[in-house]
Structure formats: C-alpha cells, structure tokens
Amino acid sequence: MINLRRLALVASIATMGSVALSSQVQAQTANVDFGGTIEATCLVNSTTAGTLTNIINGTLDPLRLETDTVGNISVSCNAGVKFAVTGIEDNGSVFTTKTFDNIDVITAEVEDSSTANVATGSISPNGSGTNNLNEPGALQEGPITADNYRVKLSLQGNGDNTLPVGIYKIRVKVALTPQ
Length: 179
Fold this sequence. Notes:
This protein is mostly beta strands. The chain has one helix and 13 strands; from the N terminus they run H-E-E-E-E-E-E-E-E-E-E-E-E-E. The chain starts with a helix and ends with a strand.
C-alpha cells in the first residue's frame, strides 16, 4: 500500500508538472497598440527684411514709398496654410518732419513664388479708418517645403500730405494658420 500511495503521489506530481510544463511551452502573443495625432503645423524657417524707396518708376515721389527689395518668409508646413497680415506698426522710425501718424495708408501684401497675392492688410496711422488686418487669404496647398513668400509694403500720403522725412522702420506681422 505504501508503494501504491507513493505511486499515486509520483503520478499526480508528474501530471501536474506536465500540465505546468505544457502551458509554459506553448507560444504566447501580446498586442501592444499605439495611438497619436499629427496636427497641421508650419515652421517659419527664416525671414529677410525688405527695403523701401520713394523713387517710383524712375521718378521721385514725396507722397509714396514702395518696396524696393521684397521681404521674405521661408515656410515649411505639413499641410496647407492660410496667411493673414495681422499688424503693421512703427518699429523705431526716426522722422525729422511730421510723425508716423501723418502717413495716410500703409499696405502690406504677401505673395507666393509666382507673385500671386495670398494676403493683404492695410492701416491708416492718421486715423482715416482703413484697417483690414487679420483677414486670411486663400489656402496655400500643402505640404510646403521651404517655400518663399514675398512681403511687400507701400506707404501713401494724400494729395497735400507728403510723407515724413526720415528713417522708416516698419514691422509687418504675418500669421500663418495651418489648415
């Protein structure tokens, strides 16, 4: 009987061991899920300042300043983008006659590489009411990789209002809204 008990004990241990061993020997799988979101984004790679001149079509014009050398914004976006001129402001101009407020209208334009207008904004420092800032232009299809967008500026005095004499430093603020 002792042998029978031992035999039963050994048999039950062997059975449990084989069950445990067989469950460890079988292949296992595990699923690991990942999720994420890529937002539409834009990166301003660089900007270049522009210059102004009052020699328009070869003639000195005391009522106007126009873009001589365009400013530039180099942009990369993973989607489309809309541009908007959000501000035009004095950035440290020094005038010997009159003030910044004597300028009638200042208009900024953003153009794509084929010179198509993608955003325009104007202000009237003299308070005459012109102000169409923050209006987004047409969608620029993406993705965009280091494309250059030209920024132009023009200043206008009225018929009897010459522009102030001095050094002009004007900042144009441009917003890029990824779509």
